[in-house]
Amino acid sequence: MSHARWVSVALLIVLAAGSAHAAHVNLASISGTINPASADYLRQDIAASERDGASALLVELDTPGGLLASTKDVIQAMLNAGIPVIVYVAPPGAWAGSAGTFITLAANVAAMAPGTSIGAAHPVGFGPGGEEGEKGKERDFAAEKAENFTAAFIESIAKERKRNVEWAVKAVRQSVAIPQDEALKLGVIDLVAADRDELLRRIDGKETLVRGKPWKLAVAGAEVRPLKMSPLTRVLDVLATPDIAILLILAGALGLYVEFTTPGVVVPGVVGAICLLLGFFSLQILPFSWLGLLLMLGGLTLIVAEVFLSSYGLLFLLGVVCFLIGGARLFDRPDLSDVNVSFWSVLVPAVGAVGGFGAIVVFGVVRSFRHAPRAGVGELVGMIGRAASPLEPEGTVFVRGEYWAARAEAAVPAGGRVEVTAVEGLRLRVRLAPPESQ
Description:
five-stranded mixed β-barrel; 14 helices; 18% strand; CATH 2.40.50.140; alpha/beta; 50% helix
């Protein structure tokens, strides 16, 4: 019996050692906006980590912000997770801007790498806030409503995780942003770690609450298992970026514009249609402003109109301006999203490039309209030929290597020089041309 007991103890030790060795931490990486695709990715990672017995889920975060609805979905999943969720703002140079601030504060453990920042969580809107009139009042009311909601939301998160509530509210109402050292000093985060290994080593043994119950982290030396986005989710994540959406719409408009001005090329039209479909699919993911979309469509209409109604570039210029303003306002929804199009780094260069290309096309088309036709029967007018038979007044002439039925203004002998004055269906109208100079 004694021998059997020793064997049992040895087996238990081996099993315990194997379990300790098998401990793992799942890793989710977010680099970009918080949108429906990235929110689903994080929620699925939390569920997967609960199922496979992970010691924790580590989220490496680098985001400028995102949609408020998607942020709310992520926060709800994090606060109700059955495992600890660790948010690590990394690598150096990353930031937890706007929606990223909410996610960092909602973590069981919040950490940042050196050279990172957090904050600026005020709802973003384009244009001045002091507009006058009823529209200005409505705009101010919507912005104030969005600000109050997000301030209350971040305050509740900070209280739940026992973080600096006062600073959290300032991040929303005053767009306060701070580097990692100050965030640690103010109690916004728990620690600053140079890398992932240091982070796991330093938080090992830390106690936190998971669904209201104490949980002691055991993550030192744990295997880190990356959880990747599915190909479809990755595509949706890219399409749910305002900058990508605006570029797709601009590329689509340019492709169709080239197809309209030079029919028969086909490829620009097909590519443009595909880009527009993807761009409008992005609009199904991102909250957009109808005013911005109508301004962009109006701009495209004015640019195309310049081809047919020459205004010496005025319609084209107005079209580009409408495109620019519409693009800037396309995602101007501070009540639903805290991200917008990058105005100077993306929108202005893109519209400038499209406008420049469009100007070249308009110039070429208008210039071609001002020239006499160079192909077809229209080019026969003014040409010199010879009478193949006497014209009294009708007969046959030889012009441009072809024989034509012709009618002359006065009799022309066979072999006489004639000048084409008009084309009447399949018959030419000619007159006697002066003899060739010697």
